[in-house]
# Entry
Amino acid sequence: MRAWKSRILIVAAIILLPLEIALLVGLWPYLPIVGRAIAGTIVVACVCASVTMIAWTWRRLRAPHLIVERDVVVMLMRDGSYHHLSAEQEAAKLLPAPRETVSEEPAPAEGQPDHWRILELAGKGMDLRSIALACNTTYYQVQKITSAWDKKLKNSG
# Structure
């Protein structure tokens, strides 16, 4: 397998040899300029690499240090104090939602009208006097309950 790859490489070099020679002859008068361009490129690459390494080192020196031991994570601050990250994470966990319980509404006390029954009858289109007689209450209380419900509907919608 290696012999096959090396043979292809040799054949490609032989085929491209005239192109290489033509480029070398064509660039011969400009070799000093090309040399300066290559040297400039190398200098720029070295300066960029050194600036990158300085910035990386500076960042590593100024970054807070983490202490990790099993499930406990602590960050050592620059002033020497500790910041317990695992304790904050535990404190930030959401509490479970409270379970909803269904309870029956207590029956209206003696002498008080059943509001839901009044509203149900009013929704069926009964007049207020008939509702008062059916629920064994006064006309005024039926009117008060239905007008409060209408006002609530108008405000919400």
Notes: The mean pLDDT is 84. The two ends are 81 Å apart (CA to CA). The chain has three domains: 2-62, 64-93, 115-156. The longest strand covers residues 65-69.
